[in-house]
Amino acid sequence: MIEQESIETLKNRLDIVDVVGRYLELKKSGANFKANCPFHDENSPSFVISPSKQIYHCFGCGAGGDSIKFVMEYENLNYPEAIEKLASEYNVQLRHTKGDRDNYHDKKILDNYNLFFRKQLTLFGPAKEYFLSRGVYESSIEKFELGYAPHSQESLQYLNQSGVSMKEGLELGIIAKSDDGRVYARFSKRITFPVFTAGGKLVGFGGRIIDQRENVGKYINSPTTKIFDKSTLLYGYHKAKTTIMKKGEIIIVEGNLDVIMLHQAGFTNAVATLGTALTQKHIPLLKRGDPKIILAYDGDSAGITAAFKAASMLSHLGMHGGVVIFAKGIDPADMVKEGKSEELKKLFAKPKGFIEFCLEHIISQFDTHNPIHKEQALKEAVTYLNTLSPMLQDEYKGYLSAILSVQERHIHLHQAPQQTMQTTQNPTRRHEDIAELSIIKTLLSNPRMIDRILNVISSDIFQNHKQELDLVIGNEIEHPLLAGINIRDDIKEYEDEEFTRQIIFLLRRYYNNELRKINSITTLSLNEKSFIIRKIREVLNRLQRGELVPYENFL
Ligand code: ZN
User: Fold this and answer.
1) 195 CA to middle of ligand 1, Å?
2) Centroid of ligand 1 to alpha carbon of 245 (angstroms)
3) Which has more confidence, 31 or 100?
């Protein structure tokens, strides 16, 4: 790693206004500066830079952080890369510790191996011909760094000559060991697709056979390694990121080649899952910039089932977008090759909304001419609707009634949506509590006070901003939720005395609520209840006299 001390030296040298000002045109606005956000498309500036806090925050898309974070996001760099870049621009000498040389070494191994594959592609005619026959341009081969993995023996020889040890090769997933202990190159006689993180760091490969071999997977990916987890990655994201943010839209397809061909046809916001279903682990990446999500899947039953699962999850999480299903046997790569870009454009412009798609898919599984089956279809559709927010349940009641032709009075909704809805709701839509927010802002400006209050309060006494308080206590100061609070002018910071008074106010509110709860608790005996009530009243009395009584959970 880069030594913390030299990072601090660099940080002290940086001024957020100067750093961001090198990329964007800034306008003065009170104590802050404003600009049009580079991370999402907007006409009126909601991107704020605070010289006093040395942070930026976008009220439109939630992007935020310090100078280093900005350069990471804007230039698609990872943390050390951004540090290196800023250090050279601001003439700061960096010192490195030993661990960093290891990371650097891993990266070098994969980068060089990728160069080796790319070189092999130029040497092995059939591989190049395969790409050209699928309609892939030379420029796309360059852009996506496509290559060819030769026979295992050749790759092993290359790795050996480059000084890559067997341990390193195994760790990085480029060498594998068979049950009988034989060592071989994991990718052999396959065209290769390097896989990058959102920040553009090479972490693994996909490989596809181009001959008629049997008993091997047509398509394989790197195994899970310390740097590669395919269920968190999206193929092509690092190249699609800018368009995704600008356009506010992301297209998810099933194959690497689909991504490449779509980019070639101008759909530069296309990405693909790496041979896995879309899962919860992809959500953090998908949420960046809050784009509309278009699932563009194959028309075979596997594709439709995958689309249904993904659409159920995304609609349940309250994310917006829709589904495009291609005609059976046709994929977007072929459509681009056949010059059907206009047709694609029309398809992507009118995806079927997640909820409509899910309801129609559920009903299509039943023979609705048969009343018994129809009733079952209704049951399943209602079960699905009940995973949505109450408002959406209401909105789609009529739709379900129409497509299933049942009367609305037979559709019984309004079970509480499942718990996960709460954590994924857009935080700006929650109720705001200025007293709680002010305490958080005060703590952000005076980190010393965090220790002082640790014994006195817990996030239990917060009603609306528990998550933010936990972030402060957990020292996750750069979390976007906190940056948003830190930069707002309408939330004030408390002076010492006022701060204590506010904490006491929150404690009193908390204990009064606890008192109300006690009677409804059935597991306590009358004696226990009156004992607890007495205890809480004592605390409340002391609080009322202005004494800061440490938080205690009596229930
Ligand atoms: Zn923004």
Assistant:
1) 27
2) 8
3) 31
CA of residue 471 to ligand 1 center, whole Å? 22
- Cα 61 to averaged position of ligand 1 atoms, centre (Å): 4
- Superfamily name with CATH number, domain 434-544: DNAb Helicase; Chain A (1.10.860.10)
Q: Which of the listed ranges 47-51, 214-218, 453-457 does the model predict with the highest average pLDDT?
A: 47-51
Distance 246 CA to ligand 1 centre (A): 10
The pTM of this model reads 0.63
CATH superfamily assigned to domain 99-228:
DNA primase, catalytic core, N-terminal domain (3.90.980.10)
Q: Output phi, psi for 82, to 5 deg.
A: -65, -40
Kindly state the tokens that stand for 199.
């920040």
**Architecture of the domain made up of 4-89:** Alpha-Beta Complex (3.90)
How far, in Å, CA of 529 to CA of 539, rounded? 16
3-state helix, strand, coil in the chain (%, to 5): 50, 10, 35
Q: Name which of 546, 548, 516 is nearest 533 in CA terms.
A: 516
Report the pLDDT value the prediction gives residue 424, as an integer from 0 to 100.
38
Please state, rounded to an integer, the average pLDDT across all residues of the chain. 88
Q: How far is the CA of 443 from the centre of ligand 1 (A)?
A: 26
CATH of domain 237-359: 3.40.1360.10
- CA atoms within 13 A of residue 394's CA, in its CB half-sphere: 4
Inter-residue contact 264 to 140 (CB < 8 Å): yes
